[in-house]
Amino acid sequence: MTHASRRLVERLRARAHGCCEYCRSQERVAGEVFTVDHVVPRAKGGSDDLDNLALCCYVCNPLKGDKTEALDPKSRIAVPLFSPRAQRWADHFKWSDDGLLVVGTTPVGRATVEALRCALSKMRFGYCSERSPCRSLRWTSGATSE
Ligand SMILES: [Zn+2]
How far away, in angstroms, is 58 Cα from ligand 1 center? Predict the structure, then answer.
């Protein structure tokens, strides 16, 4: 990796607060370096610019692959996948009442959960919320200070 691309990944990591931009898993809880997702895949003309990149866990990234749309399980209509660059996570997802599952609240959210199996990765690695980037670390390990 070149110095320039390392700097780009560090900017990406800082912008995402160290969380997968799809399932909200935390990189430091997962214990592995997250990958870079091209929101619009290179195979479909997506660029390497920061505004087309998302920090992505190693569970979501291979599931997303080159997908840009999936079926909304409710309507059975193909809709675009969630775009971390163009959309707000909280507009398309919420946490289940027990705080354990990512729930899609719109066709885009439902299709993305279905396509990426966000709930499974979150169950394994914890998550962070819009308001509290370190929420999962608290309930996972109790090791954070507040
Ligand atoms: Zn993820």
Answer: 7
Q: How far is the CA of 77 from the centre of ligand 1 (A)?
A: 23
Into how many domains does the chain fold?
Answer: 1
Percent pLDDT > 70 in the chain is 77
Query: 35-59 pLDDT, tens per residue?
Result: 999 999 999 999 999 999 999 998 8
Tens digit of pLDDT for each residue in 115-132? 887 655 455 444 444 433
Domain around 96: 3-137
- Nearest C-alpha neighbor of 101 from the set 136, 66, 57: 136
CA of 76 to the centre of ligand 1 (A): 23
User: DSSP string spanning 86-122?
Assistant: TS-GGGTEEE-TTS--EEE-SHHHHHHHHHHTHHHHH
Task: Tell me whether residue 145 is in a domain.
Answer: no
Q: CA 112 to CA 107: how far, in whole Å?
A: 8
Cα–ligand 1 centroid distance for 55 (angstroms): 9
